[in-house]
Automatic annotation (TrEMBL):
It comes from the Bacteria. InterPro entries: Beta-barrel_TonB, Beta-barrel_TonB_sf, TonB-dep_rcpt-like. Its main location: membrane. This is TonB-dependent receptor protein. Keywords: Cell outer membrane, Membrane, Receptor, TonB box, Transmembrane, Transmembrane beta strand, Transport. It is a multi-pass membrane protein. Residues 57-532 form the TonB-dependent receptor-like beta-barrel domain. It is found in: Cell outer membrane. Pfam families: TonB_dep_Rec_b-barrel. The keyword tRNA processing does not apply.
Length: 562
C-alpha cells in the first residue's frame, strides 16, 4: 500500500504512507488451522491543529476565526512540526474444531510502535471589547504581540493590518511502545433438553508499555499573523531535554518540567456469555466481562525544581449485559439490549500525555449504562431493509480530554444521551440503490461535577440532529456504454465545543457525488467528488480550536479485478 496526498483547503498539510500486510494460512479446511499475519506501516504527515476559537465583544459565544472571514487555508504551525510513526504487528490465529459441539480459538498479537511528534497550536482565544485578544499564552509561552482588536473590524483598511497571535503547543517528544495480547476463547453449541445454547467464554491478557522522551525549544516561539501566517520561525532552536531542562512543558498537577515519562499497564480479563433459545422465535443472551487493570506511571529527569513522581492504579471492573431477541417472522426482529461498561484511566497509558496524576490515580472509573430497544424489518422480498432504535446512554464520572495538553481526566460529570436512530437501505427499483439514516439526540449534562461544565447543558460534540442520504443508479449495467452515477448529502447540526456551552461550530452540510464505468470485463474507472459546493465545514473538534474539513476535491481512480 502506498498513499501520498495533500489536503484541499489547507496549506502545508500532507500525508505520506506506505505499508505491507502479508499473511499465510496452514490447514485450511482442516479441523486445526493457523493463520500468521504481519503488518507494517510508515506514516509521515504534518499535524493539523486547525484554527482557533475566539470570543468577540459582539458575540459571547466563541466561534472559529474562519467564521469571521479568516482564510480556511491558514495553518499556524512551524517548520518543526512533524508526525512520523512506524508500526509493526505480528498476529497468530489458531482455530481448533474439537468436535461438533466445541470450537476453540487463540489469537496472539505483538506490536512495536515508534513515533516522533511535534505540533503547534495557535493561542488567540479571548477578544476583549475595545482592546486586544487576551489570554494569548499557551503552556507558558508568551507571544511577542497580540491579536489586534481591528481583527473584527468592518473597516477594510484596518483589515489589512497584520494581527499576531502566539503559537504554542505540546513540546516535541519521541515515543517508543510495545505490547502483547493473547485472547483465548471457546464457542460451544449444545442443548439442554429442548433448549439450545450458544456459550462463549475465555480470557484476555494484555500488557502495554510506553516510553517518552521530551524535547524543548531554546526560546519562545513568537507570534504569527492570523491573516497571513508563516511557518518560518527565525532563531528558534530545538534541543535535548537535558539541554533545556527549564524550558520543558510543565506537566501540571504538581508535576514539573520532566524529561522522561514512562507508563505500563497489565489487563487480565475473563468473559462469559450464553445465548438461550427458549423457542424458535425467542432468545435471551446474558453475559459479563471481568477485568483487572494494574497500571504505573512516572515522570522523571529534567528540571530539579520539582521532584520526580511515580503513580499507580489498580482497578477491578465487571461489566454485565443482557439482550432479548424476538423474531416472529424471518424478515422481522425486535430486540432489547442492556449493558454496562467501565473505563478506567489505566487504559490510556499509551495515548495520553498524562494518564495519571495525584488526583486521577485515585479517581473512580467512568461507568456507562446503555438501554436500547429496536427493530429490523426487511420488506418487498428483502429488497429494502429498515431499522429503528430508541436508546438511552447514561454516564457517571465521564472522562474528558484536555484539548491543549491531551491529558485525560475524570470530571465526575453525569451525562445522559437519549434519542432515536432510523435507517433504510436497499433497491428502490431495478439498478437503483438508496441508503439513508437519521438520528435525533437529546445529549444533556445531568450533573456538573466539574467547574468547567454546565448542568443542564448540552454534551460537547454531540448534535441534536444528523442525517445522511445516498443514492446511485446503474445505467445499462451489462452494455459497453454502462455507467453508474450517484450522489448524496451529509448533514450534522451545529454542536457545542465545551461542556460549559460557550463555544460552538455551525452545521455541517456536504454534497458528494460519483460516476464510474466498467470496460474490458475486468477494468473500472471512477471519479468521486467531495464537498461539491466547497462549504466551510469542520472535522476535528476541540474546545478551543477546530480543523476545517476538506474543500471541493475530486479523486480519480482506475482498478482491475481478476
Amino acid at each position: 500500500m502506498g498513499n501520498e496526498n495533500n489536503v484541499v483547503g489547507r496549506d502545508y498539510i500532507y500525508s505520506h504512507r506506505w505499508g505491507i500486510a502479508p499473511s499465510i494460512a496452514f490447514g485450511l479446511g482442516k479441523k486445526v488451522s493457523f493463520v500468521l499475519e504481519y503488518f507494517h506501516q510508515n506514516d509521515n504527515r504534518i499535524p493539523d491543529y486547525g484554527v482557533p476559537v475566539v470570543y468577540s465583544s459582539a458575540n459571547a459565544i466563541g466561534r472559529p476565526v474562519t467564521e469571521y472571514g479568516v482564510k480556511r487555508t491558514n495553518w499556524y504551525g512551524t517548520t518543526y512540526d512533524q508526525d512520523d510513526s512506524s508500526t509493526d504487528m505480528i498476529t497468530g490465529r489458531l482455530t481448533a474444531k474439537v468436535n461438533p459441539i466445541l470450537t476453540l480459538y487463540n489469537d496472539m498479537r505483538g506490536g512495536i510502535f515508534h513515533r516522533y511528534f511535534s505540533a503547534s497550536q495557535e493561542a488567540c482565544s479571548n477578544f476583549s471589547s475595545g482592546a486586544t485578544l487576551t489570554n494569548n499564552t499557551f503552556n507558558g509561552v508568551s507571544p511577542s504581540s497580540t491579536c489586534q482588536s481591528d481583527f473584527f473590524s468592518s473597516n477594510p483598511a484596518a483589515a489589512q493590518v497584520a494581527r499576531n497571535g502566539g503559537v504554542g503547543g505540546p513540546e516535541p517528544y519521541r515515543q517508543s511502545d510495545w505490547s502483547i495480547q493473547d485472547v483465548f476463547s471457546g464457542v460451544a453449541h449444545l442443548k439442554t433438553g429442548r433448549i439450545r445454547h450458544e456459550i462463549i467464554g475465555g480470557f484476555d491478557i494484555e500488557y502495554v508499555t510506553d516510553h517518552r522522551q521530551n524535547y524543548a525549544y531554546g526560546s519562545n516561539r513568537p507570534g504569527t499573523s492570523l491573516l497571513d501566517p508563516s511557518p518560518a520561525v527565525p532563531g528558534l532552536t530545538l534541543g535535548d531535554c537535558n539541554q533545556y531542562p527549564n524550558r520543558l512543558v510543565n506537566i501540571g498537577n504538581g508535576v514539573g518540567r520532566k524529561c522522561y515519562k514512562n507508563s505500563d499497564a497489565l489487563d487480565v480479563g475473563f468473559f462469559l456469555s450464553d445465548q438461550i433459545w427458549l423457542t424458535n422465535y425467542l432468545s435471551v443472551k446474558a453475559g459479563f466481562r471481568w477485568d483487572n487493570w494494574n497500571s504505573h506511571y512516572s515522570a522523571t529527569g529534567g528540571s530539579t525544581a520539582t521532584p520526580d513522581v511515580h503513580y499507580g492504579q489498580n482497578e477491578t471492573t465487571i461489566n454485565p449485559s443482557v439482550s432479548i431477541m424476538y423474531t416472529p417472522r424471518s424478515n422481522l426482529m425486535v430486540y432489547f439490549n442492556w449493558s454496562e461498561s467501565t473505563t478506567p484511566l489505566s487504559m490510556y497509558v499509551t495515548n495520553s500525555s498524562e494518564p495519571l496524576n495525584s488526583k486521577s490515580a485515585t479517581a473512580s472509573p467512568e461507568r456507562s449504562r446503555l438501554y436500547e430497544v429496536g427493530a429490523k424489518y426487511s420488506a418487498f422480498h428483502d429488497r429494502i431493509g429498515f431499522t429503528a432504535a430508541l436508546f438511552r446512554l447514561e454516564k457517571n464520572n465521564s472522562i474528558q480530554t484536555d484539548p491543549s495538553t491531551g491529558d485525560i481526566s475524570a470530571t465526575s460529570d453525569q451525562e445522559r444521551n437519549q434519542g432515536l436512530e432510523l435507517s433504510a437501505s436497499g433497491t428502490l427499483l431495478r439498478n437503483w440503490m438508496f441508503y439513508g439514516t437519521y438520528a435525533l439526540y437529546d445529549p444533556t449534562i445531568t450533573k456538573a461535577g466539574s467547574t468547567t461544565s454546565k448542568q443542564g447543558g448540552q454534551i460537547q460534540y454531540v448534535p441534536h440532529n444528523q442525517a445522511t442520504a445516498w443514492t446511485s443508479y446503474e445505467i445499462a449495467p451489462r452494455k459497453p456504454w454502462n455507467m453508474t452515477i450517484g450522489g448524496g448529502i451529509t448533514w450534522r447540526q451545529g454542536v457545542w465545543l465545551d461542556q460549559a456551552n460557550t463555544a460552538r461550530v455551525p452545521a455541517t452540510v456536504e454534497f458528494d457525488a460519483m460516476v464510474s464505468h466498467h470496460f474490458a470485463d475486468h477494468w473500472k474507472v471512477a471519479m468521486n467528488a467531495y464537498n461539491l459546493d466547497n462549504r466551510l465545514n469542520y472535522g476535528s473538534l476541540f474546545s478551543n480550536r477546530v480543523t476545517p474539513s476538506i474543500g471541493r476535491s475530486f479523486l480519480f481512480n482506475i482498478s482491475a479485478q481478476y
